[in-house]
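EI: anyone free to look at a 79-residue chain?
SC: sure, send it
EI:
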Amino acid sequence: MRAQAASAAGNPEIRPAHLLVALLDQTDGIAGPLLEDPDWWIRIAAAETLGNRLDPTNTSALLLALSDDYRLVRIRTAA
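SC: here you go
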């Protein structure tokens, strides 16, 4: 219902994926803690975000992602 009301008011529909992208674009360090999220797709997005930033402070977080239990997280982190 809220999405329909927002759309009718001329506002775009907001989905969880949009919120995740907005959070990952923040520069205050939100992506690092997301590497420990229970959802693998969130961990992948966080690892890719950290990997795209040329910041030496991301090294320890990326090393953590390289040892993730989920294989695809490790692959996407290394890519």
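EI: The first helix runs from residue 2 to 8.
SC: 👍
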